[in-house]
Design goal:
This protein is mainly α. 81% of the residues lie in helices and 0% in strands. The mean pLDDT is 81.
């Protein structure tokens, strides 16, 4: 019961009181999403064999780019759902 009341109080504090606050919140969560997407890509690159960044940029491997982009889109969808 206490946690539910605490969660309600913190959610109410995130409502923007002005357009400047709304823009600031949007920018902060946008930057957070970008940083988490980059971290997700680096983690995916670290977990897969070989260097994906080199494979995509230098060797022009389209299949590696497609798999990586699908992973990044999945991570971004999860981040968007969590931030929303």
């Amino acid at each position: 019961m206490y946690f539910h009341l605490l969660a309600d109080a913190t959610v109410a504090d995130w409502h923007a009181r002005s357009i400047q606050e709304a823009l600031m919140h949007s920018a902060a969560f946008g930057l957070l999403g970008i940083v988490l997407a980059i971290v997700g890509f680096k983690l995916f690159d670290w977990l897969t064999p070989g260097d994906l960044q080199k494979e995509i940029i230098e060797n022009k491997n389209v299949s590696a780019a497609i798999i990586t982009s699908a992973f990044i889109l999945g991570v971004c969808l999860i981040i968007a759902a969590a931030v929303h």
